[in-house]
Amino acid sequence: MATPQQAPLHSVRFPGESDTYRAARNELLQAEMALRKQIENVAELRRKLPLGGVVPQDYVFEEGATDLSDSYATRTVRMSELFQPGKDTLVIYNFMYGPEMKSACTSCTSILDGLNGTAPHILDRVNFVVVAKSPLERIRTFAKGRGWRNHRLLSSASNTYNRDYHGESADGKQIPALNVFLRRDGTIRHFYQSELMFAPKEPGQDPRHVDMIWPLWNLFDYTPEGRGETWRPKLSY
């Protein structure tokens, strides 16, 4: 008995495609539709999270002038001052660039290369900063070399933010992380952290905890080569 053919999902076709290709593509398309729905389901669950704990202190960071070439205009800024008027959400990316590291993390650099272009769009809706443990001038020198002009760069060298919010291990090893904070009635509370990194994962698989903000791997997932088993981003090619 012949298996009934599945109804077409849409009428778009490409030059020279075969019936075999279309059948396989439709099967993949069904999976992509399910993934789209699942992504939204997860996002909805995230949005419904209750408020997390109150931030234990008004962390003091160091930052410089907007112009990266200005190495003299430095100041301290408190976490509470990172919230712009009318914007009660603060997103902080933990950049793996500690004082003991010879160079910045190549993966974090790849992420921030992409977010540098996206930052003006992000800042139209929420507050977004990049925090690293190295001294401020070291962070700014690296950022200048990458051409980052849109990131608000902060040094956490003199506070415990990285340790408190799991961007640093007990032995000082830097950990990539994305944290989201909310301001409610003048009080800053934690909302979300990309803690998938700490959860069980499939053998041989990266944590993928910040992949949703990382264009690189998402693009490679569209290709027949995929992500590859050994390839990693570099600082230069």
Question: Can you characterise this structure?
Answer:
The protein is built from five helices and seven strands; from the N terminus they run H-E-E-E-H-E-H-E-H-E-E-H. By secondary structure, the chain is of the alpha/beta class. Strands 5-4-3-6-7 form a five-stranded mixed beta sheet. Strands 1-2 form a two-stranded antiparallel ribbon. The chain is globular, with a radius of gyration of 21 Å. The chain starts with 18 loop residues before the first helix and ends in a 17-residue tail after the last helix.
Topology:
Blueprint (H helix, E strand, L loop, with lengths): L18 H29 L12 E4 L11 E4 L10 E6 L11 H18 L3 E6 L3 H11 L6 E3 L5 H4 L12 E8 L2 E7 L21 H6 L17
Shape: globular
Tell me the distance between the termini: 56 Å
Order of helical and strand elements: HEEEHEHEHEEH
What's the number of helices? 5
Sheet with most strands: strand arrangement? 5-4-3-6-7
Brief sketch in words of this structure:
This protein is an alpha/beta fold. It has helices at 19-47, 106-123, 136-146, 161-164, 215-220; strands at residues 60-63, 75-78, 89-94, 127-132, 153-155, 177-184, 187-193. Helices cover 29% and strands 16% of the residues.
Jot down its keywords.
alpha/beta; globular; single chain; 237 residues; five-stranded mixed beta sheet
